[in-house]
Write a structure and sequence with these properties.
about 10% strand, Glutaredoxin, Glutathione S-transferase Yfyf (Class Pi), Chain A, domain 2, 4 strands, about 220 residues
Length: about 220
């Protein structure tokens, strides 16, 4: 495979894919896209007209793959590394893995993004009611995840999966805008394990030069 990941290092969905790439030890080329640059933006829109990160281009097969979960499932099927898979082979575990992947994307990442992007709006264009709704959704999601993580150590048991790739960056950012709270110790312990995972620690370190851009 000749793979290029078009991404931005601060994007949580891009970080999700990077964690998976590092877990699978798949060789790839990074292309950081500056959407503020008209030329780069035009080239990216030609690749994926929705203009959303991340996008993976497989030049060998002539395939463009968008959306973080789809990218990781594509990589998982293409990977030749023995003993490392992001989706469990057991059908029930695989279903639960996909559920928890969607859970962290939709109920942690999305409301977190609502809170963060609201800070970028002009004062008279902000949405305080929407932000309060997003915070309430995060509180509900934290409670569910805390209960799930009583079993641990990872999102779907003993193996690190697609769901953990989604959880790591989502929780990393969400914790900064709405802390977990002392009562959610199972979630806090899970997050601590995620931060110690070499793949995610590498992603965080690589994004460090861009942290000043984060408005949270």
């Amino acid at each position: 495979m000749s793979l290029t990941l078009h991404f931005h290092p601060l994007s949580s969905f891009c970080q999700k894919v990077l964690v998976g790439l590092y877990e699978l030890d798949v060789p790839f080329t990074k292309h950081v896209v500056d959407l503020a640059n008209d030329v780069e933006r035009a080239a990216f829109l030609e690749l994926w007209p929705m203009g959303k990160f991340p996008v993976l281009r497989d030049e060998t097969r002539g395939i463009t793959v968008a959306e973080s979960t789809i990218i990781l499932e594509y990589l998982d099927r293409q990977s030749t590394q023995d003993g490392c898979r992001l989706t469990p082979s057991d059908p029930d575990d695989a279903r639960e893995c996909r559920l928890r992947d969607r859970f962290y994307d939709l109920y942690v990442n999305v409301p977190m993004g609502k809170i963060v992007t609201d800070k970028l709006r002009p004062e008279n264009k902000r949405d305080p009611y929407g932000v309060e709704q997003a915070k309430a959704q995060l509180e509900t999601a934290y409670a569910i995840a805390d209960e799930w993580m009583r079993a641990g150590p990872w999102a779907v048991g003993e193996a690190f999966t697609l769901a953990d790739c989604a959880a790591a960056p989502a929780l990393f950012y969400a914790k900064r805008v709405v802390p977990f709270g002392e009562a959610r110790r199972h979630l806090a312990q899970y997050f601590a394990r995620l931060t110690e995972r070499p793949s995610f620690a590498r992603v965080v370190a690589e994004a460090k030069p861009s942290w000043a851009m984060f408005p949270g």
